[in-house]
Amino acid sequence: MKTIEVDDELYHYIASRTQAIGESASDILRRLLRLPASPQPFVLVQENMIDELKDLAKLPKNKKALSNQEKIINRVEFVLTSSQFNDEKKVVNRFLQMLSALYLANSDEFSHATVKVQGSERIYFAKDKEIILATGSSVKAKQIPESPFWVITNNNTERKGIILEGIMDEMGLPEELIKRVKSALG
Description:
Blueprint: H1 8-16, H2 25-32, H3 42-57, H4 68-81, H5 83-87, H6 91-105, H7 107-116, E1 125-126, H8 129-133, E2 141-143, E3 150-152, H9 157-170, H10 175-185
Antiparallel strand pairs: 1-3, 2-3
Helix pairs in contact: 4-6, 4-10, 6-7, 6-9, 7-9, 9-10
């Protein structure tokens, strides 16, 4: 058996894909790469990959490799396992990182979701900071990185989780992923 070095982010990604207690990194990678469970001669592995590529080529041309929802899920998973997100101490910064990931994954769906997710007296999202600030005397807003949106940020951690939950729900993300994001927030 050979040893390889991987960065922390890749290690966390591999570890997050564990399905059974005691599953080795080799087992996880074999599963993710769709390789046979036990080592086989390289020629056989090559044949398996060729067969898989032939099957993929048979898919209808108009079918995308990944659906929009899968792209969003992958981006959220990437952020959840990143050291930048996990090492961040401030909840507001983790909140902004996740909102940025959702926007970057699908800006149209994110934009539609922001219209539907608002408080009873406050607007949570706007493309103009002043619109958010006008909804109260003690309101604070920050721009979501790499997006034209501003978000209210002086809510408590629970409210930030509710805001993220609302956006993710409107974007059609799975409930299990939404729960993981909320618990990782704070």
